[in-house]
């Protein structure tokens, strides 16, 4: 049985065709995941280049250090940039680094490219745009600010739907921060909460030029189909580009698909050539070693023990790679394998729910308790969103109980005084192993929005290295330590009361948050 038969309806023409089912490609340890390279580029690196961060403060300090050290490029993709003092300090770091680059001898090589969402980045009088305009004004040749506008918000809908609510239609949700050849993958936005007391996940890939090139090209591709912020706070499309909400929607989406898939396929081809060259070099090197002994060993580049696979999801453009890979991982997970899955907003797609409930692996699902939900205490209708998540959680828990799966599928709620919870991703432990060999980390929440509405990116990190596996295990343990197991009694607590109108409305609006 091949899980690819189950996923056949998801395959669209721009995505490379799978030539063999994953279960036939490899079966031992971390190598069983090499089927992913049939869809996306595979980047083999040393585990010593991977560092897992654990706190918002560590993330913020690293951002500042990396910006100040950058010489060639700073590329930052986020939902938005906040407007507080900590965010201003980041902008000041960018200004300082750009100023330094101008004072250096010869023409400056430093380029800064920032990709944000148009609707979220334009919210309020003081917003992401007003924070960045001074950089555009002072360094016009070196700074680019792109604002992605979903093609699904157009016409009468765009005129009628108010600010904040317009963000429910679709967003630029990718979070990638890169500086020269160092890349930070995260689910955190560029806002003070994410620098202080909103728990997320963060991983630094150091000295990884191929990965940095890939994400630079990806952000450039999305930037090319986005609105360009001008020095006078107006926006305009690049010359000759179809407009996202004024132009023909199908034509725009086709162009966007082509640009993004060009980046993925070009990187995939490059990496395949590099793999072939490395294989032949190792082959020649091993025969040389047998002839010359250990003297030649120092010239050989060590084989990678860790592999990075970028997983892109842009359903508005017909790109469903992350969805395909995630569903396959859940489908193929064997009996006694353990999957630790976390999301700040528990609202799994029906497909993901069916796989969790219908497959053989053990699941430990970490989600936000109402008090650490990002919408807790919000004004207006948004204030009811935590209650809607409680209702969705209770429905799922009831289904687990109905199927007598409480031992195999366990829900746990993150709770921490004074904090909110925004971590997302998964860790996969193979049967009989105490350490994970694969993690997914990035922007997707495993919900309807992530799969169908927003632009998302994460990476699958697969490693054979015990020290890196231990890092990932400690990251998982640290998050789950702040949680309690959900039981029937959980929903009897006063703070879990869900008003009737919330229960009635949730099924109608759950695909928008």
TrEMBL record:
Its EC number is 2.7.8.5. The keyword RNA-binding does not apply. Gene3D superfamilies: Endonuclease Chain A. GO terms for molecular function: ATP binding; CDP-diacylglycerol-glycerol-3-phosphate 3-phosphatidyltransferase activity. This is CDP-diacylglycerol--glycerol-3-phosphate 3-phosphatidyltransferase. It comes from Urocolius indicus (Red-faced mousebird). InterPro entries: PGS1 (IPR016270), PLipase_D/transphosphatidylase (IPR001736). Belongs to the CDP-alcohol phosphatidyltransferase class-II family. Functions in the biosynthesis of the anionic phospholipids phosphatidylglycerol and cardiolipin. One of its GO terms (biological process) is cardiolipin biosynthetic process. Keywords: ATP-binding, Lipid biosynthesis, Lipid metabolism, Mitochondrion, Nucleotide-binding, Phospholipid biosynthesis, Phospholipid metabolism, Repeat, Signal, Transferase.
